[in-house]
Amino acid sequence: MAIPTIDFLTRNLRHGVNRRTGIFGFLGGLAGIAGVSSVEATIAKPPVDCRSTGMQCLTGAECCSGRCITKSDGTARCARKTSNRKKRKKRDAGDGAAPLQCTVCASGCPYTTIEDAIAAADSYDTITIAAGTYDPVPRDAWVNGSITIDKNLLLRACDPHDRPVIVNTSSTTRSILIYIGRLTETYDCDDFAPTAFLDGLILQGGPTAERGAILAGCNANFVLSNSVVQGFSTVPATPHDYAPITLNANGSATIFNTRIVDNTGLGTTAATAFLFYPLQSNASMTITDCEISGNAGGAAAIVAGQYGTITLSGTTVVRDNTSTGANGGGAWVGGPSSALILEDDATITGNSCTTLGGGIYAGTDATVTGVTSGKVLLNAASGCANYYSDATSTCILS
Q1: CA 290, CA 257: separation in Å to the nearest integer?
Q2: How many other CB atoms are found less than 10 A from the CB of residue 341?
Q3: Which domains does the chain have, with CATH numbers?
Q4: Is 31 helix (H, G, I), strand (E, B) or coil?
Q5: CA distances from 269 to 60, 212, 300, 384 (A)
Q6: What are the pLDDT digits (tens) for 227-268?
Q7: What DSSP state is assigned to residue 137?
């Protein structure tokens, strides 16, 4: 299967395509990247804007030869096309490539901090992070993250079987752990649209109140795969509240094979427990083969803001989440022209809220598709346990 380029993925996600063919092609490439020293993807026809031999790459689909190989210096570059005879010889003899040196580790690597590795990296670089605990220092107490990604980068575990833990134990409150976008960006949109690929990471909330794990700024995009987001406590802020994972205007995100568990929203306002919040306009998020469970706070586990679309697909399960201050326990789809799509075997079950729609609450101008009694079930609320529609003022699934 062809693996899409960053530009291809960004364009399709931003325009709400969210089709599993393109997404899974890239994520299949990530699965191949983790734990091996070379990345090869054979494509039937090179892209028109393909990268020549020797140029930096993230996946083989970007290269005219279809091969993106990790070199001994840790960079990945397009390689020459390998003949079938050479491939068979290499396969029969075994791959004798030396293990890839990690980019970041406590000692013996080029960098000891993730922040320094990002600052030194060029766009399209891959940063591999060794096992261990990383405690980045917050940049400030507002938008910028402890770790800021302002270029197209792939950050992944050096060993997929021993994932690094990134945690903020600073006493500074309201600090985003990972911010994707410009350092100076607040809420003004421009044409700057970085894409971050995060694979095989454990993002851990610290002992103090924080603003969340990931914030994608305006126009920014990210892919989060094979990871864990846990233990974050989000607090109300002005002018916007943030969740453990927040997607801003015109952004797009794909979350695959990831657990988002045991996060807490402090306070009673609606925006303090948003795990997913496409804020403002035209944001889209696809969540595939994920577990979202044990989260509690003032709002539903999943929230779609205005013109935002959230798609749950594969075996994704939203379960045992609790909302104490708003409608909807599993999902709140209340923003103007917002949408929730359930595909495949995705389920919303065992969630609760103190008002309407323990499983799903849909606002007057929202669209919800793919809901059946087998997918949204066993939720609890003071009124309408499973699915309430404000447009018709009726309980769709009791």
Answers
A1: 5
A2: 18
A3: 6-33+36-93 (no CATH), 114-397 (2.160.20)
A4: helix
A5: 46, 16, 11, 21
A6: 999 988 776 654 445 678 888 778 889 999 999 999 887 544
A7: P
